[in-house]
Amino acid sequence: MSATPDENVKEPKSELIYKLEDRPPVKEALFAAFQHLLAIFVAIITPPLIIAGALKLDLETTGYLISMSLLASGISTFIQCKRVGPVGCGLLCVQGTSFSFISPIIGAGLNGGLSAIFGAVISGSVVEMFISRILRYTRKVITPLVSGIVVTLIGLSLIKVGVISCGGGFSAKGDGSFGSMENLGLAALVIISILIFNRSSNRYLRMSSIVLGLAIGFVVAYFLGRIDFGQIESYGGFNIPTPFKYGLSFDPAAIIGLGVVYLITAIEAYGDVTANSLISGQPIDGVTFQKRASGGILADGFNSMLAGCLNSFPNSIFAQNNGMIQLTGVASRYVGYFIALFLVILGMFPAVGKIFALIPDPVLGGATLLMFGTVAAAGVRIISTQKMNRKAILVMALSFSFGLSVELVPEILSKFPQEISTLFSSGITTGGIVAILSNLLIRIKE
C-alpha cells in the first residue's frame, strides 16, 4: 500500500504549549487572545482612518467605518479559524483590514465616493476567490519576484500618505498649517515613543509599542487642544450593521485597480498560511496543506466580499500574528474564536470608533509612517530571496519606473482618456501590471 502525500511529509519540530486542536483553559485562551488583539488592533483601525481622512468624511461616518472594520475582522477571523466547508484554513489565522488596498481605494473614493469603493471591493474579491481554485497555475505567473515588487510599491505608495498625515493631513493643506512644527513634533513624538518601546526587553511593551505610542501622542495632542470630545454627540447605543448603507456603484477602473491588488494578496495569503502551518507544527506540503492554502485564500476573498457588504474594506490574513504564536507558544485555533469575539464586541459599540476617529492626523501619521516603511522593507526582503539576473533587474526597473512615475508625477496621465488615467493613477496598479507582463514576456538567454 503506497503512502499518501501527507505521510511522506515530516512535520516540523514544535515546542508549542497548545497545539492546533488543543483547547486551552478559558483564562489562558482569553489572555492569549488579548495579546493577539494588541498586535492587530491599530492595524485594523488605521486603514479606515486614513481613507476617511483622504476623502474628508465627517466624524460620524469615520466612526462607523472603524466599527464595521472591527466587526468584519471578527467575522472573518472566525471563518478562517473555524473553516466553514471549503472556506477557511482551519489555523489560528487572524484577518484584518488590509493596508495594501488603501491607495486604489482612495482613488476610487475620490472619483465615485463610498458607493464606488464598496462596489469595487465586492466585485474585485471574485479575483482572489478564483485564484484559490487555480492556485497551482497562478504561482507560475505571480512569482516571488512579482510579489516582492508589488509589496514594495504598496509600501512606497503608502509612505506618501503617511507623510501627508505627519504634516497635518489633507485638511491642513487647505488652512495653511501643513508641515507646522507642532504637527511634525507630534509625529516625531509618536515615532520616538514607538521606537523606545519596541527596543524594550519586555515583550509586552514591545508587543504593544504602537498602541502605547499612539496613546502618548493622543494625550499630548489633547493638552495642546487638538482633540475636542465635544464633537461626539453620544457615546451610547449599539452599532446595528446595515448592509449596503452607502449604496453600490461599479467603476470599471476601480474594480481593475483593486483586482490587481487582490491578485497579489492571494499570493501573500499563501505565504502567510505556509508560515502559520510551519509554526503550528502542521505539514507545509501535501494534500492537507493544499486544502488549507486554497481554503485560506478562498476565505480571504469571501471575507473581503462580506466586508464590502458590511460597509468595510478588504480583509487579509495578518502576518504579525504568526510571530505572536511563536512568542506565546499557543497555536490553538480555538483562541481565534475569542479574538473574533473581542473584535465583534468592539465593533458593536459606536463609542470605540468615534474616539479613535478623533486621533489627530500627525499622531496617526507618526505610527503609520513606520508601518508603511515596514511594508516596503518586507517587499525588499522578498525580492532579495530571488536570483538577481538580467531578467530580474529589467523586470524591477520597468515596474518601479512605471509605478513610481504615476505616483510622483500624476500629471503624466492628464492627456489620456479619463478611464485610462483613472485606472493607471495608482502606482500599485501600474507597477503590478507591468511586473506581471514583463515577467511573462521578457526572455533572456544567459
What's the gist of this structure?
By secondary structure, this protein is mainly alpha-helical. The chain has 18 helices and 2 strands.
What profile does the largest beta sheet have? Answer: 2 strands, antiparallel
Strand numbers in spatial order across the main sheet: 1-2
Task: Give the uncertain stretches in residue-range form.
Answer: 1-13
Count helical runs.
18
Class based on secondary structure composition and strand pairing: mainly alpha
Fraction in beta strands: under 5%
User: How far apart, in Å, are the first and last alpha carbons?
Assistant: 45 Å
Number of strand elements = 2
Mean pLDDT: 85
Helix content: 55-70%
Large-scale geometry: globular
> Helix and strand succession?
HHEHHHHHHHHHEHHHHHHH
Q: Any idea what the radius of gyration is? A: 21 Å
Give a written overview of the molecule.
Helix content is 69%, strand content 1%. A two-stranded antiparallel ribbon has the order 1-2. The protein is globular, with a radius of gyration of 21 Å. With 446 residues, it is mainly α. The model is unreliable at 1-13 (pLDDT under 50). It is built from 18 helices and 2 strands. The chain has helices spanning 26-55, 59-82, 102-133, 135-138, 144-167, 170-175, 181-198, 203-207, 209-223, 252-279, 286-309, 320-328, 334-348, 350-357, 361-384, 390-408, 418-423, 427-441; strands spanning 95-97, 315-317.
